[in-house]
Amino acid sequence: MTWKKLDDELTDPTTQEPLSAFLVRGLTRNVNDYSTALTRGGAFAFDNQTLAMQWASYDQPTGFVFTVDVGIAATQVQFDIVGNTKTDDSGGTLVIRHLDTSTQRFTPVAADSSLQLRTVSFDFVAPLSGLQGFFIGWQSDVGPDLGWVRLRGGVENQVFCDQGNGAGHWTFPTAAGTGIETHLLLRIDQVVNSGNVQPSGDARRDYQICYFRHFTGNNPDGTFVIWPELDQTPAVLPTRYDSGLQVQGHVFELGCFNLWSVSATTTEVQVGNAGLPNAYDQTTALSSIAQAPSNFLTPVMPSLSNIVSTPGLFGRVLRAGDPLQFTFAVQNKAAFGVQVNFRAFSINLTQPNFDTPDFTFDVLDSTGNPIGTQTFLSKQSVPRFVPQTAYGASANSLVCANGVSSVADEWGMRDAMPVVEVMRPTPIAMRWQSTVAFEALTVGGVGTTYTGQITCTSDIYVFAFFSRLF
Amino acid sequence: MAFTVPAITPALSPYLNPPNAIRGDAVNSLLQRDRYLFATRRRLIFTGGKFDATSGSFVTPFFFSARTSAVVTGNLWVVIAGNEVEVKIDEFNVGATLTLTLSAGGFETNAQLLTGIPAATTLAIGLSVRALGAGNLYSVYIFEEILAAGDLP
């Protein structure tokens, strides 16, 4: 059933002339077809020029969450994912999970370093409407063995290593004095000799190497920063560097994914089943049909923004007082309001009220000046991020998740997280209520474009951002 | 009666409840709301930014796929905010292009129409940026143009 233009040439409502039941039938058909005719979609992309969004994950799928407006009674959403694997040797598996129902779809990705579009159709267990949260994660395949390395001790998330010089040794990837983000796996060898340390033969020998630092001088030559922390039960490595205590490990490549963009489009819906009102002396109110457009005006309100991000990250590092901005416009003049939803972690525990910061929400005109009344939210609960690795801190940021920023040889935050971690912050919702009507968009945008601006009183990491009109 | 897509949300007629008969003004108010809903609730195509550009040739920090609705005007609105920056939109599947410039310095916005975009079509869009002076792109917002009367099916 397709959407039909209703013929209103048959009557003149200004004279109270009855319209025909034909029109009501057509209206009913339109109402029932809203879910099909008004399917939603939207895409967001990551900056691949400054610092590509790429990550590997050995232990479990890690990734991020985002929000999609699926429209009315959606039963299937199609995700178009543009990206490539870092090398042509190692792939992995993309995981998409619907947060509310915990249903998942796994998509194996073969190693391919050329840019590819991968399509994933996601079926809901029941029709869903409006804003829905999704997790997209990546779990790496183990790639080629890159060589062996001597291990001379380890503690918590660090393993000290020396570069061997025999056949098949792993060549350090950076010069002395520098470090590098890595997407590698350290598999500690079994010791069959009656040496000082005897690792067991289980998976506790496997650690993802998130970072490698090549020390100057010797003793040790370098350090692996690993995830998870070193398991000492059973003993794997001594907890200190000692040239007399050493075992050997092998370094493997992990499948690493570069994510360029994600697009979500509702592809299947449940069609409405509103009944046709009787005509005169009706037993079913015509208002039952009137209710449908009224009900759907809000659920299909225009979406304004579905991402904020910092280069190399899924989400946005927002420093205290800095503005987080998204630009939008409306196409018909009305006193719309603007709502935003997002989750956040606090990332600087040295600041006052770091986990109960205040937020402001302004709307700016096309010249950057605030209009209307600022929305203020005080003391919102923002949980601190629990570091999963701990090598050091940079620029007052805690170490997040299992990665690093490769910029300027800096240990920063790569923010791929397991779904239970990403879900921990409670979503924060803010509404900016208009006191004046937004002007309808015109070419050039002078006086008809607007920018939402959010500030926070402490350093936070913002993700799962979404904004729409209400 | 000339057909138009209402500019604002049409009010409902009070004559919609039993035992009222189906009267012209009541049904007309429903028709107006039906058109308003269908014409104005267009699809978001893309949001993104922020990008610290450099002067010289364009670089393409954003590349994405998106699909248009079943009924479109053929135009997409592209709105940018930034400071002394030039943004080029290249749609590769249908060959549409658009360049927007912010040259005055300070916070500025621009809005233009990307034309030649068909309905129900998968788009492949590259968004390129280069700096003019300070050169920062704050945000990009791309969405479907609302329908006019002649665009309704």
Briefly say what this structure is.
The complex is a heterodimer of chains A (470) and B (153). With 470 residues, chain A is mainly beta.
Spell the H/E element sequence of chain B: HEEEEEEE
Largest sheet of chain A: 6 strands, antiparallel, barrel
List low-pLDDT spans of chain B: none
CATH architecture of the largest domain in chain A: Sandwich
Using the coordinates shown, work out and report the CATH topology of the largest domain in chain A.
Jelly Rolls
CATH level 1 name of the largest domain in chain B: Mainly Beta
Number of helices of chain A: 4
Compute the number of strand runs of chain B: 7
**Residues in β-strands, percent of chain B:** over 45%
Shape of chain A: elongated
Share of helix of chain B, binned: 10-25%
Distance between the termini of chain B: 18 Å
| Number of discrete domains of chain A | 3
The whole-angstrom Rg of chain A is: 28 Å
CATH-defined architecture of the largest domain in chain B = Sandwich
Helix count of chain B equals 1
Ranges of chain A where pLDDT stays below 50 over 5 or more residues in a row are: none
Brief descriptors of the model:
heterodimer, A: 470 residues, Jelly Rolls, 3 domains, 39% strand, B: Jelly Rolls
Write structural notes for this entry.
The complex is a heterodimer of chains A (470) and B (153). Chain A is mainly β. Chain A has 3 domains: 41-141 and 256-267, Jelly Rolls (Sandwich), CATH 2.60.120; 142-254; 302-469, Jelly Rolls, CATH 2.60.120. Chain A is 7% helix and 39% strand. Chain A is built from 4 helices and 24 strands. Chain A has helices at residues 21-32, 34-37, 287-297, 419-422; strands at 41-45, 54-55, 62-69, 74-85, 92-98, 104-109, 116-128, 131-140, 142-155, 158-162, 179-188, 206-214, 222-227, 247-254, 257-269, 303-305, 316-318, 324-328, 338-346, 359-364, 370-377, 428-432, 450-456, 460-469. In chain A, strand 9 and strand 10 (158-162) form a beta hairpin. Chain A is elongated, with a radius of gyration of 28 Å. The model of chain A has no long low-confidence stretch (mean pLDDT 84). With 153 residues, chain B is mostly beta strands. Chain B has 2 domains: 1-41, no CATH class; 44-145, Sandwich (Jelly Rolls), CATH 2.60.120.260. Helices cover 11% and strands 46% of the residues of chain B. Chain B is built from 1 helix and 7 strands, in the order H-E-E-E-E-E-E-E. The model of chain B has no long low-confidence stretch (mean pLDDT 87). Strand 1 (41-45) of chain A pairs parallel with strand 1 (44-48) of chain B.
